[in-house]
Every structure is written in C-alpha cells, then in structure tokens.
Amino acid sequence: MSITSPVKKLESKYVWAAPMVAALVYPVVLMALFYSARLLHNATHFSDAVVGTVALILCFLLTYSVPALGLAIAYRLGQISDPTPSQIRVRRFAHLVFASPPLFTCIGVVLLILGITNGDYIVWGIIWIPIVLLTLRSHLAIGTRIVSSPPFNWERLKVIGAIHGISALTILLIYLVPHIANHLTAFWSVNTHIGVMETLRQWYRSKLVEPLVIVLFMCQVITGLVLWRPRTTHQSDVFGTFQTASGAFLSVFITSHTMAVFLLARANGVDTNFFWASGQPAGMLGDPWSVRLIPHYTLAVWMLFTHLACGLRFRLLDRRIPISRANKVAWGIIGLGFIIALVIILAMFGFHIF
Fold first, then answer.
1. How far apart are CA 330 and CA 317, in angstroms?
2. Do the domain assignments include residue 354?
3. Helix axis angle, 120-138 to 100-113, nearest 10°
4. Per the domain annotation, does 353 fall within a domain?
5. What is the DSSP letter of 289?
6. 261-279: buried (b, 16+ CB within 10 Å) or exposed (e) per residue?
7. How far apart are CA 221 and CA 254, in angstroms?
C-alpha cells in the first residue's frame, strides 16, 4: 500500500508538529490581536493608524491560520488509504488544533465557573506541550503500513447515524434556524434583534422546548463522537475532512457554549443577550478575555453550515444524485454559511444598518 504524493511531502517532524506548535501559541496570537486593536484605537497620528491597521490585519490572519493549519494537515493525513496508528493519532491531534478556538474558550469558561482567573494559559500549555512532544516522537513511526487493516463495517453505525441525523434536523427546525435568523437581524439594528429575540424566547425557553434542545445537543455531541472516531481512521476526501473537522469543532463549541450560558451567565443572573455574546461594553476587541470569542463565534456559524453541507452531500450521493451536483449543493451551502457568519460577526463588532 502506497501513500499519495502530497502526503510524502509531510515526512518532516517539523511539518507534522507545525499545527500543534501553532495551537500552543494560539493564546499569544489572540493577545497580539487584542494589543493591535488597542494600538489602532489609541492612534493619534496617521502613521500610527497605518501601523495599527497592518498589525490588526496580520494578527487576524495569524488567528485564523491556526485552525486552517490543523485542517490542512488533517486533510493531507486523510488521504492515506491505510494509515498507521501514529498517523491516526497525529490526524486526530490536527482535528483538535482546528477546534482550538472553542477549546480555549471552553477552558476559560470552566475556570471562570470554578472562580479561577488567569489560569487558562497554564492549562493550555499543560494540554499542548505534551501533544507537541508526542507528535515529534511519533515521527519515527510514521510510514506505510505493510499489512492493510480490515475494512470497517459501517453498517454497525447506521442506527447511530440515523439518530444523529434526526436529532440534527429537529434542532434545526425548533431552534437553530430561528436562532441564526435572529442573529442576522442584529445587522439591521440591535433593537430589532432584541425584539425578535424576546419573541423567540417564549418558544425555545419554554419548559418543553428548552430541555428538549439541551438533550438533543447532548445527543449530537455523543453520537457525533461515536461516528467521528472510526471516520478519522480511514481515508477521506475534502468533504470527509470538512465533516470530521467541523464535527470536532462543533462538539467542543456546544459543550463550551452550554456551560457558559447555564453554569456561568444564568447562574449569576446575567442575561445571555446580544450584549453578553458580543462582550459589551468593551467589545470583543476591547477586552483581553473576550477577544477569543471572535474566531469562536465566526467559525462556529460557518462550521454549522459546513457540517450540514457535508451531511446533506452524503445523503444526496446515497440517493444516487450525480457527484458533481451533490458537490455544487455542498459548496453552495458552505459559501452561504461563510456569508452568514461574516454578517453576524460584523454585527457583533458594531456594524449595523440602523
């Protein structure tokens, strides 16, 4: 069994470890993003404004390059037809790198719940330093498997897949579609958003719907992880990598967001409205903790659409829809998700029509 040529280029321990090192310094990049925003905000001369703008743009690019690097390595490793245990392990680490934004937020939320401040950087290092070292150590074991592993029986996961799909559709209909639409109204005006939110809350905060939504989200995380594990041990294309990467991201995001809402905000009498989500009054760029919410929220919305697109593509192919048409549908949904995520984050930055 041979390895495809793009993967052969990765036979350097530094390339294998690059996403994990990037994840290790992710908090530093976020802090640089915060200080570059402060530099621009405090600029008194044109030259200072130019320097601040360039620094802000570069820091934004660096921030999103961390999950992008994880996704790239996960995709390259996913091209291997019969991976070794080391390749599988590094591939899963790359998925975790992609989930860095919600993971770092989740750590911060947990520590705030516990009443611990400024400990997230230490915890982050405790997580990622061993992962970097393990990845470097795994390099010697990375190679071509001589004996192919037996094919996985996907029929065993049909029931789990059905539960995952049905629960996802239910969440979309009773919560996510109106919730995302509500966030879009903030681009029009915050008052419009608050008005729509208060109306929708009568539905999805009811004694029947809210517990159901929580249970369904828990079902999504559990069944998703069950499906994710075998899929990261077998060869996949770009859509397969998008599906597993977005699934890993959303699993961590759901966990983080649920704890932030119920165990942190509501437990302390804080209204989880637009102002809470956007880190007001300082704003997401004006607070060193809240700056992590920028990639956290932006990618969460985009990955929601990406995950749905990949799942729908799989169903279309299962119904013998031509692959070219299924791919167009998937790319269309992914593109739509990017636009919606961009509009929502612009509103959270304070851009409103009225």
1. 11
2. no
3. 140
4. no
5. T
6. beebbeeeeeebbbeebbb
7. 8
The angle, 0 to 180 degrees and rounded to 10, between the axes of the packed helices 46-78 and 26-41 is: 160
CA neighbor of 142 nearest in space, from 245, 233, 232, 12: 12
Give pLDDT, residue 118: 86
Rounded to 10 degrees, the C-alpha dihedral 306/308/311/317 comes to: -90
Per-residue CA distances from 27 to 59, 69, 133, 255 (Å)? 12, 16, 19, 20
Q: Which two tokens stand for residue 204?
A: 């999805």
Instruction: Kindly state whether residue 96 falls inside one of the protein's structural domains.
Output: yes
Tokens of 73: 């390595």
Render the burial of 9-24: b for 16+ CB within 10 Å, e for the rest.
ebeeeeebbbbbbbbb
In a domain, 258, yes or no: yes
CA 18 vs. chain centroid, Å, equals 19
Backbone angles phi, psi at 322, to 5 degrees: -50, 140
The C-alpha atoms of residue 115 and residue 269 are separated, in whole angstroms, by 16
Containing structural domain, residue 269 = 5-348
Q: Number of folded domains in the chain?
A: 1
pLDDT at residue number 147? 45
Tokens linked to 254: 């759901």
Identify the burial level of 61 via C-beta atoms within 10 angstroms of its C-beta, where 0-12 means exposed, 13-18 middle and 19 or more buried: exposed
63 Cβ neighbours under 8 A, 6+ residues apart: 26, 29, 30, 33, 294, 295
Q: What is the mean pLDDT of each run of 10 residues along the chain (354 residues)?
A: 48 83 98 97 95 98 98 95 90 98 98 94 98 83 51 78 96 98 98 98 96 98 97 95 98 98 96 95 96 98 98 95 98 98 97 94
Picking from 102, 67, 72, the residue whose alpha carbon sits closest to that of residue 9 is: 72
Rounded to two decimals, what is the model's pTM? Answer: 0.94
Task: Give CA separation, 74 vs 18, 71, 176, 236, in Å.
Answer: 12, 5, 28, 10
Reference 337, options 250, 228, 277; nearest CA is 250
- Rounded to whole angstroms, how far apart are CA atoms 273 and 11? 48
Residue 55 and residue 346: Cα distance in Å, rounded?
A: 19
Residue 336 CB coordination number (10 Å): 13
